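[Discussion] Sanity-checking designs against the backbone

I'm trying to build intuition for which residues belong where. Below is a structure token string of 188 positions. I'd appreciate it if someone posts a full sequence so I can compare it with mine line by line.
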């Protein structure tokens, strides 16, 4: 640490001399003037997979809480996993937290995976969604429940996984560990 301070003390006067010799030169930028990168800048799937991912700090937090600079759905690994499971942007658009969305604390479910649930404000019984994902950002499952005009007795949700067609399951999307995994639809 002392070496770094001594080196900086030596270089600072030299940079001032260089500016005095060339008055048209742009002033040197310091590290403090470097722009900060916003955590909300979109990144590619490849960039999302750089380095180890650990989503466990989100467990117990609400989906809209910021952890290590990201809300859960804004985390690059989560965004990439959801996009892989639900490639259609229009279908995926409802999986978000607007100012008036409902959410419950993020929980662990079977197999050590993480469950996040959200619902439309004052209409969570008609539109809700859930994401189940491994702590490393892999193995996503995305549930979307859109009741529309359906009879409450015939509740079913759409489940999406990467590379597979959507599958219908019984009920709405799970919001607790006890509700996961959902039951298959029984043909009668």
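Best answer:
Here's mine. Compare freely.
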């Amino acid at each position: 640490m002392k070496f770094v301070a001594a080196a900086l003390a030596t270089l600072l006067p030299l940079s001032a001399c260089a500016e005095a010799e060339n008055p048209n030169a742009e002033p040197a930028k310091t590290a403090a003037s470097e722009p900060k990168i916003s955590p909300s800048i979109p990144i590619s799937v490849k960039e999302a997979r750089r380095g180890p991912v650990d989503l466990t700090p989100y467990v117990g937090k609400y989906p809209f809480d910021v952890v290590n600079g990201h809300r859960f759905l804004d985390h690059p690994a989560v965004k990439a996993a959801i996009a892989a499971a639900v490639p259609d942007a229009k279908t995926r658009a409802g999986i978000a937290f607007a100012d008036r969305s409902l959410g419950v604390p993020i929980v662990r479910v079977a197999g050590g995976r993480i469950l996040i649930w959200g619902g439309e404000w004052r209409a969570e019984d008609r539109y809700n969604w859930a994401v189940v994902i491994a702590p490393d950002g892999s193995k996503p499952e995305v549930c979307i429940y859109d009741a529309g005009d359906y009879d409450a007795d015939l509740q079913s949700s759409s489940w999406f996984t990467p590379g597979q067609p959507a599958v219908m399951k019984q009920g709405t999307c799970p919001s607790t560990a006890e509700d996961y995994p959902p039951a298959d639809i029984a043909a009668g």
